[in-house]
Fold:
Amino acid sequence: MTDEELKLLVQSNALAIQAIGQRIDSNSRAIQAMIEQRATDRLEHEERIVRLEDVVLRLTRIEEAQNRMLSSIDEDRPTVLRKLTAIENKIDQIIENRS
Structure:
């Protein structure tokens, strides 16, 4: 190999090494961006989980309140039934009296 060929080979290798270095830098930046995005995603996920837990807690409280309300209605039902029966009996009497 001549000196000129060696010189061209060294230059070619230097350019290849430089290109590899640029790719490494680019990949490093991309990896860092992915790491930062992953951290942001994790924080957002944790915030969503907290909100979901809050929603579940509120729904549980609503369900408990509904159950108490239904229980209260069931306790009042005999009174309501008695009143309805009394109204029905009065209507029956009025109808009988008109006949």
Remarks:
- The CA atoms of residues 78 and 84 lie 10 Å apart.
